[in-house]
Design brief:
NAD(P)-bd_dom_sf; NAD(P)-dependent_oxidoreduct; Epimerase_deHydtase; Rossmann fold; NAD-dependent dehydratase
């Protein structure tokens, strides 16, 4: 029986965990994890855990010489304007394997890589429609860190011949990961005539796109992994409130928001864009299970 190809996952959070059943049928899966209890959980799922921490380069020696397929979804640290975690991951992978290495991850021909980025790299577009032809114009430090990660990965892919697909994801939601806490706190939203446009994707649809990008993604290609129906941010919170049987948030002016909302929330409200997903559908051939947020909420009832 032919051995399965190897896959390394850096960042096995909620989204990538949803893809594991599909991935385990096709790959021998290795996952970076920081703690022994995480390793035990992953091992029980059929995954080979690798105890390593991207904030501790000395723990990454087992990745030397890696030529396995890669899924990278580790977020940057919360400070600075560059992504040091991606830099350390790529540095570890690019180091030659030591002679007589007993590592279970063997060198292989160049294999695909997928990076889960964010649509925040586009910056503010004043509500205009965008596709992937628009270059990155990040407005915030968090988005500049993501844009830096993308650039690092592109340079690495060009040097190594790796086919790289970058998936830009917007607000990710699913049952159990909705902004109900904010609604329960009574935080207001912007009145509709001044509100920003936002985009969403269900976690299952993003996980499906990650899987297909490994096989169908074009080299050095970027994909907007968004659903078919951008919405005003306040309308999104109204949908969540209605589905959760909570009172809808109060509406305030943008000027009032400057006094009542946190800088982090204001940063998101300052970005307004509507994103097209033609590449997602035509090249990756993704069929969205939840093409709109309203279709998801309707399914709950």
């Amino acid at each position: 029986m032919r051995a399965k190809p190897r896959l390394l996952i850096a960042g096995c959070g909620d989204v990538v965990s949803r893809a594991l059943p599909w991935l385990l049928q096709r790959f021998r899966v290795y996952v970076l994890c920081r703690r022994a209890d995480q390793a035990d959980h992953l091992r029980a799922m059929g995954v080979v855990p690798i105890l390593a921490d991207l904030d501790q380069p000395a723990t990454l020696s087992r990745l030397a010489g890696l030529r396995a397929t890669l899924i990278h979804s580790v977020p940057p640290a919360t400070h600075g304007e560059t992504d040091l975690r991606t830099r350390k991951l790529l540095s570890a992978i690019q180091k030659p394997a030591p002679r007589n290495s007993k590592s279970t991850i063997l060198a292989q021909p160049p294999r695909p890589a997928v990076y889960i980025s964010t649509t925040g790299v586009y910056g503010n577009a004043d509500g205009h429609w965008l596709d992937e032809s628009r270059g990155a114009r990040p407005d915030s430090a968090r988005a500049r860190r993501r844009a830096d990660a993308e650039q690092q990965l592109r340079s690495w892919a060009r040097r190594t011949g790796r086919p790289l697909a970058i998936l830009r994801a917007p607000g990710i939601y699913a049952e159990g990961r909705l902004p109900t806490a904010r609604i329960e706190r009574g935080e207001p939203v912007i009145r509709r005539e001044e509100d920003s446009w936002s985009n969403h994707i269900h976690a299952d649809d993003l996980a499906h796109a990650v899987c297909l990008a490994l096989f169908r993604g074009r080299p050095l290609r970027t994909y907007n992994v968004v659903d078919d129906a951008p919405s005003r941010m306040g309308d999104w919170f109204d949908e969540v409130a209605d589905a959760s049987k909570l009172p809808r948030p109060a509406r305030i002016t943008r000027e009032e928001a400057q006094l009542q909302l946190s800088p982090a929330i204001l940063s998101y409200l300052g970005e307004s864009r509507r994103l097209r997903n033609l590449r997602l559908k035509q090249e990756l051939r993704v069929h969205l299970r939840w093409p709109t947020t309203s279709s998801f909420f309707a399914s709950l009832f």
